[in-house]
């Protein structure tokens, strides 16, 4: 016979403010096999844990039911507590009274208390069938993969490499640096972005523990935490990276011009070029979709770059490569993208040359950009006399993205300050905003600085932007501050486009089984307790792939993710959770349904001959199984069961719920 202890947590007033916890504890005392039942203000606190430990020893408890908040919050805390008292940590059942009872029934205390009793009754019924489980240790690879070469990937790579790990940094662009490499200055200090970033780019490229794989993408991922097998597809540059010295002699003779992607297509480069002036590695790249020789595959068509290259680095015979890597863990740092403002027809982006995005403004303002740092109107090439910055383009908008992009306000303040400093007092500058959110360290002072520079702030969202016959632009905006409808005219409009998930995010989700939140970004395992981890063990998140964020927050998260990965792999072995699927081979018919539904490729079909007959059965690879239960729910014969969540354990909860409903119908509590 089991001896069960039931503990009802007040959770301050989160639970006790709605649920009568004393009544729930008294009710639990009358349930079968319950030896002790108590309620306490904070069961997760040290006194609360000690209460449970003392009762385990004094009352010889062999099962524990804790009615508290979500198991995602403190299940591991309680498991460790009971383990210290000598009880197997998997003999603990968590009943969720906060998220499932008190919060949704905040104005129904009687119904909430009745529901709490029912959930505790169900928890006690399941606890009787819990079985002790043990974790298993496996050795791990001490190599790591970082996906994305922006500031997040660079920071994570340097931290991991400095800790002694072999790092493979994969970047799909020809150079590392990411979005930060395109910026002119950084807020709120107005430091040169390249001055901060470029030394780090060089450091990571030269680090003996880092292998840089640019112009490359992750093609396939297999395995499990500590032992991932990764295939990286490296596209040909048609230039030998070991020979190219970055002299750009080839660029000068190339007859084909193409839009310059790094400069947001504001200018042109050549079919062979170096990605940017700060590119790392500083190696030329040939665009096969524009190169005359590669398009036609005829040697006689063009070979000017081949003739000009003194280092003999041009190699038109390069082929795509498949690089196999074994890594213990992964940091995903694929960043985000800028919202395409052409989706908002009212703002005229793409129709009027003098309407540009904030990232295009960065390239115009940058000394290494297409205008040499001179702020000009693209149509006239002249310095503008009036500039309007429009906030929240694509953000805080139910038509597109309801979330705040976090950086738009500060980027607009920075660009308004730069415009004032570069163009002087003769230019009129307007910032049209919904709300100005200057939330970070030194950000409010930065806002004050912009106001002191005679930047005009208009609390309103502009209507449709129109073009005048003289090439200028104008729009109406209702200013909430003055309750007046204003007409603003200017010859340059800068749209503060929000940040949106990377175009590769769906593929990253599929490759690494990293869940996504409702806004499309990658989802952290827990917003408060595990903000750096994905839902898949060994896969960590860094930077704007998890949510929009600025550079300081990105760097902090990257270093945190690296530290988590160091902690995971440093001992050379890890413990695997025992909550896995198991197959009863005698019942298995080999129908392969489980194999088809497993998202982690953890089910294999094996064939054996016995007594002259072939027996086909499913087998779960324990190391790869993540315990999602998809196979168990799909199995038509119940052959596959989940440890800790067996069919019997779930069914007995349902029966306990039904028994309570039946008793209530007969006048019971």
Tags for this model:
Rossmann fold; 24% strand; 18 helices; alpha/beta; 29% helix; 669 residues; globular; 5-stranded parallel β-sheet; FAD/NAD(P)-binding domain; 34 strands; single chain; 5 domains
Characterise this structure.
The protein is an alpha/beta fold and 669 residues long. The chain has 5 domains: 4-133 and 648-665, Rossmann fold; 143-173 and 196-232 and 323-332 and 512-573, FAD/NAD(P)-binding domain (3-Layer(bba) Sandwich), CATH 3.50.50.60; 249-319, no CATH class; 336-500, FAD/NAD(P)-binding domain (3-Layer(bba) Sandwich); 581-643, 2-Layer Sandwich (Alpha-Beta Plaits). Helix content is 29%, strand content 24%. It has 18 helices and 34 strands. A 5-stranded parallel β-sheet has the order 10-7-6-18-29. It has a 5-stranded parallel β-sheet with strand order 20-27-21-22-23. Strands 2-1-3-4 form a 4-stranded parallel β-sheet, with helices on both faces. Strand 32 and strand 33 form a beta hairpin. Helix 1 (21-29) runs parallel beside helix 5. The mean pLDDT is 94.
What's a quick, concise take on this entry?
With 669 residues, the protein is of the alpha/beta class. The chain is 29% helix and 24% strand. The longest helix has 19 residues, at 109-127.
């Amino acid at each position: 016979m089991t001896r069960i202890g039931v503990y009802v947590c007040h959770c301050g007033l989160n639970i006790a403010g709605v649920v009568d916890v004393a009544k729930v504890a008294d009710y639990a005392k009358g349930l079968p096999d319950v030896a002790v039942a108590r309620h306490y203000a904070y069961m997760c606190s040290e006194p609360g844990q000690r209460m449970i430990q003392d009762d385990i020893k004094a009352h010889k408890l062999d099962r524990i039911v804790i009615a508290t908040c979500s198991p995602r919050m403190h299940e591991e805390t309680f498991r460790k507590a009971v383990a210290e008292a000598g009880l197997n940590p998997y003999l603990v059942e968590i009943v969720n009274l906060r998220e499932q009872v008190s919060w949704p029934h905040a104005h129904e205390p009687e119904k909430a208390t009745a529901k709490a009793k029912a959930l505790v009754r169900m928890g006690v019924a399941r606890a009787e069938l819990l079985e002790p489980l043990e974790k298993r240790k496996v050795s791990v690879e001490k190599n790591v993969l970082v996906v994305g070469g922006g500031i997040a990937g660079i920071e994570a790579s340097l931290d991991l490499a400095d800790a002694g790990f072999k790092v493979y940094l994969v970047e799909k662009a020809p150079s590392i640096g990411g979005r930060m490499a395109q910026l002119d200055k950084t807020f709120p200090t107005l430091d040169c972005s390249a001055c901060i970033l470029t030394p780090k780019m060089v450091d990571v490229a030269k680090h003996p523990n880092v292998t840089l794989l640019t112009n490359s993408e992750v093609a396939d991922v297999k395995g499990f935490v500590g032992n991932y097998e990764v295939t990286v597809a490296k596209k040909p540059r048609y230039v030998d990276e070991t020979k190219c010295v970055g002299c750009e002699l080839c660029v000068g003779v190339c007859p084909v011009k193409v839009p310059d992607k790094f400069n947001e297509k504001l200018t042109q480069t050549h079919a062979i070029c170096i990605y940017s002036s700060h590119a790392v590695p500083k190696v030329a790249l040939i665009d096969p979709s524009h190169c005359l020789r590669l398009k036609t595959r005829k040697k006689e068509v063009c070979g000017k770059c081949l003739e000009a290259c003194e280092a003999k680095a041009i190699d038109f015979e390069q082929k795509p490569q498949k690089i196999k890597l074994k890594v213990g863990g992964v940091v995903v740092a694929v960043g985000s993208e800028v919202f395409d403002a052409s989706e908002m027809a009212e703002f005229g982006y793409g129709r009027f040359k003098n309407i540009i995005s904030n990232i295009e403004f960065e390239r115009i303002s940058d000394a290494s950009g297409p205008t040499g740092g001179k702020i000009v109107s693209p149509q006239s090439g002249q310095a503008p006399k009036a500039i309007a910055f429009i906030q929240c383009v694509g953000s805080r908008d139910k038509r597109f993205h309801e979330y705040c992009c976090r950086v738009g306000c500060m980027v607009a303040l920075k660009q308004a300050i730069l415009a004032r400093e570069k163009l002087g007092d003769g230019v009129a500058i307007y910032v049209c905003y919904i709300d100005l959110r200057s939330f970070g360290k030194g950000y409010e002072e930065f806002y004050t600085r912009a106001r002191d520079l005679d930047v005009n702030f208009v609390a309103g969202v502009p209507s449709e932007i129109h073009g005048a016959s003289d090439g200028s632009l104008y729009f109406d905006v209702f200013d909430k501050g003055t309750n007046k409808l204003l007409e603003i005219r200017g010859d340059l409009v800068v749209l503060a486009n929000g940040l949106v998930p990377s175009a590769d995010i769906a593929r990253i989700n599929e490759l690494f089984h990293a869940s996504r939140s409702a806004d499309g970004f990658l989802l952290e395992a827990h917003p408060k307790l595990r903000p750096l981890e994905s839902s898949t063990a060994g896969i960590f998140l860094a930077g704007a792939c998890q949510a929009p964020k600025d550079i300081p927050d990105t760097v902090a998260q990257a270093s945190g993710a690296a530290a988590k990965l160091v902690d995971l792999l440093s001992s050379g072995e890890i413990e695997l959770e025992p909550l896995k699927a198991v197959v009863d081979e005698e019942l298995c018919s080999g129908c392969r349904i489980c194999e088809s539904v497993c998202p982690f490729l953890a089910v294999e079909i094996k064939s054996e001959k016995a007594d002259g007959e072939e027996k086909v059965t499913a087998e779960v690879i324990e190391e790869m199984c993540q315990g999602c239960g998809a196979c168990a729910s799909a199995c038509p014969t119940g052959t596959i069961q989940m440890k800790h969540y067996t069919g019997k354990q779930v069914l007995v909860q349902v029966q306990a719920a039904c028994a309570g409903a039946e008793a209530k119908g007969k006048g019971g509590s």
